[in-house]
Amino acid sequence: MAVYRQIHTTFWQDPEMIEYEPEEKYFYLYLMTNPHTTQCGIYEISSRLISIELGYPIDTVCELLNKFVDRGKILYSKDTREVFLVNWLKYNSLKSPKVMACVEKELQEVKFKPFLKEFYELCIQYEYPIDTLSIDLPLDYGEEKEEEKEKEEEKEQKEEKEQKEEEVKEEQPATAETKNVFRVFEENIHLPTSLEIEKLKNWLEDFEEDVIIMAIEEAVNRNARNMAYINAILNNWENEGLKTKDNVIAFKRDRTDKNNSKNSKSITKNKSSSKLEMDHDYDIDAIEEKLVNRNRGG
C-alpha cells in the first residue's frame, strides 16, 4: 500500500480552519501527514519528536497539542504518547476491504485502549463495517454502553414527564380573576396574544385583579392602548410598593392633594403679583397727574 495521506481541498474551507493562525494550520497538517501517521488515525508520537521534526520548542508543541485537544480535533494520551485524529474517519473511508484489513491490524498496536472505544463509536456513526471482535475493546465497554443507555433513557423519561406536567399546567382552567382581567384587556385593548396572556398571568401573581384592571383603564384614559404602557404603569406601582386597589387609590389621592396644594400656592402668588402691579400702575398715574397740575399752575 502506498504511503501517503489524502487531504481534501475542503480542508481549507473549514470555518474553523479559516480562523486558525498560520502556525496552527501548519501544525494540524503535520499531525495528519507526518511519517508516523496510520490509516486508522491513531499513532504514537512524542512531543520531543514533534519538536525535532518541526523545529519548534517543546513548550510550543505542548501548547499546540493542548489547543487541538481543547478544540476537539485530536485526543492525546501523555502516558502512551499516542495521538488520535478525531476527524480522520470522516474524510478517510474504511469501506474498502484492503483498507479495513490494514486498519484492523493497526488497531492491534494501539496501547491506550479508551481510544479503541472512541474509534468504534465513530465507525458506527459513519456506518463503517468494523468487526468489534477484531478490536481489543476495554473489558467494561459493554457495561459502560449499557449504563449510558440507561442514563439516556432516564433523561428522556424525565424530560417527557416535565413536558406532560407543563402541558397539564397550561391546560388548567383559568380562574375567575384571570378571566376577568383577560376580558377587560380584550374589551379595551385588543385580543391578547399568548405572550400578553403569559405576562398578565405573571402580574396576577404580584397584584390584585383590580390593580391590573386599573392599569388597563389608565392606559385607555391616556390613549396608550398597548401592553408596553400597561407594563410601565405596573412596574411603577410595584416600585412604589402598591399591591392592592386601596394602595393605588391612596397613592393617587395623595398625588392629587399635592398637585392641588401646589396649584393653590401658585394662584396665590399670581394674585399677589397682580396686586403689586396694579399698585405700581396707580402710583405712576398719580405722579403724572401731579406733574400736569404743577405745570398748569406755573
TrEMBL record:
This is DnaD and phage-associated domain-containing protein. Signal peptide: none annotated. Residues 182-251 form the DnaB/C C-terminal domain. Gene3D superfamilies: DnaD domain-like. Residues 261-273 have a biased composition (Low complexity). PANTHER family: DNA REPLICATION PROTEIN (PTHR37293:SF5), PHAGE REPLICATION PROTEIN-RELATED (PTHR37293). Residues 143-175, 253-278 are annotated as: Disordered. Residues 152-172 have a biased composition (Basic and acidic residues). NCBIfam families: DnaD_dom (TIGR01446). Belongs to the DnaB/DnaD family. InterPro entries: DnaB/C_C, DnaD, DnaD-like_sf.
